[in-house]
């Protein structure tokens, strides 16, 4: 389990994260979303024990992670800026990691490399950026970690490789009940992968919750009427948004969704469609009125 307890990290006079707290239980994938420079990398490096916080602490399985070799041996951090030994092949890096991680599995390493179609004998510095990222994820999962930290790990990958990584992470998490944090500046990349999402807004977490809780009691309805209607006709429904396109009405509603649907049916529309909100729509709704440049995380 990962516990970030009131952590503050500074670089000179600059405060990167301040009094930040979150937790990731075993068997959970936590999506950390925020624009570039919002503090995602600083947080992940603090969680991994690379940075020592000025305030608070990070606990892994109940122990402070900083300068804790035992707990670090159970964790693998894949940074945004990848580093490999000069002129190293994947095979050479596998032997290198095998010397540091007691649970490194060479057979699993070969199987994972074949899934991505990677030649483990070739120099990694000759790989494309996307292939290098795939190589590091293969090496990471071959260590059989209890905790995986992934920083912008979908960056530079084509849709097929993204889908492979998502499937591997879901399968690995389900089998091993590990804790995973994966960061991205693009919410769409995390939407179908994570069961818990946090929005980092520079220094702290602005929104944090399970996907189920965030979407609970929220729905989007589209209605078509054979007569003009206005927002005032929906006084019995708790509306968050109301848009009108001729006689086609789109609303976001809060509360008991089934009760809302019953009230809308009583208005006798020609058409009534209901669907759950996407994470993007939930975030926009929850963060309405706050100073946040959403264009940087929804594009």
Can you summarize this structure?
The chain has 299 residues and is α/β, with parallel strands linked by helices.
Note down, in words, how this protein is organized:
With 299 residues, this protein is of the alpha/beta class. The protein folds into two domains: 207 residues, Rossmann fold; 81 residues, Alpha-Beta Plaits, CATH 3.30.70. 29% of the residues lie in helices and 29% in strands. It is built from nine helices and 14 strands. The strands form three sheets. The protein has a six-stranded mixed sheet, with helices on both faces. The chain has a four-stranded antiparallel sheet with strand order 2-1-4-5, with helices on one face. A four-stranded antiparallel sheet has the order 12-13-11-14, covered by helices on one side. The longest helix is centred in the middle third of the chain and has 18 residues. The relative contact order is 0.14.
CATH level-1 class of the largest domain: Alpha Beta
Number of helices: 9
Q: At the fourth CATH level, what is the homologous superfamily of the largest domain?
A: P-loop containing nucleotide triphosphate hydrolases
Query: Level of helix content?
Result: 25-40%
Tell me the overall shape. elongated
Low-confidence stretches: none
């Amino acid at each position: 389990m990962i516990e970030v307890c009131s952590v503050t990290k500074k670089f000179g006079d600059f405060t990167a994260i301040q009094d930040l707290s979150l937790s990731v239980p075993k068997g959970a994938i936590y999506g950390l979303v925020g624009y570039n420079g919002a503090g995602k990398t600083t947080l992940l490096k603090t969680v991994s024990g690379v940075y020592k916080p000025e305030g608070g602490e990070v606990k892994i399985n109940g122990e402070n992670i900083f300068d804790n070799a035992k707990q670090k041996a159970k964790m693998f951090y894949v940074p945004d800026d990848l580093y490999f030994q000069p002129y190293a092949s994947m095979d050479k890096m596998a032997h290198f990691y095998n010397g540091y991680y007691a649970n490194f599995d060479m057979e699993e390493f070969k199987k994972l490399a074949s899934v991505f179609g990677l030649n483990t004998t070739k120099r990694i510095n000759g790989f494309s950026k996307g292939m290098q990222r795939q190589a590091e994820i293969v090496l990471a999962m071959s260590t059989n970690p209890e905790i995986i930290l992934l920083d912008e790990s979908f960056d530079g990958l084509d849709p097929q490789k993204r889908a492979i990584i998502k499937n591997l992470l879901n399968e690995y998490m389900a089998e091993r009940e590990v804790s995973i944090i994966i960061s991205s500046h693009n919410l769409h990349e995390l939407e179908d992968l994570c069961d818990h999402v946090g929005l980092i807004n520079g220094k702290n977490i602005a929104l944090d919750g399970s996907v189920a809780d965030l979407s609970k009691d929220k729905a989007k309805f589209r209605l078509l009427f054979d007569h003009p209607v206005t927002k005032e006709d929906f006084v019995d429904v708790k509306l968050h948004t109301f848009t009108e396109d001729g006689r086609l009405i789109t609303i976001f509603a809060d509360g008991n969704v089934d009760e809302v649907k019953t009230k809308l049916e009583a208005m006798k529309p020609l058409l009534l469609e209901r669907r759950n909100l996407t994470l993007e729509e939930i975030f926009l709704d929850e963060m309405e009125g706050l100073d946040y440049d959403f264009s940087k995380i929804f594009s």
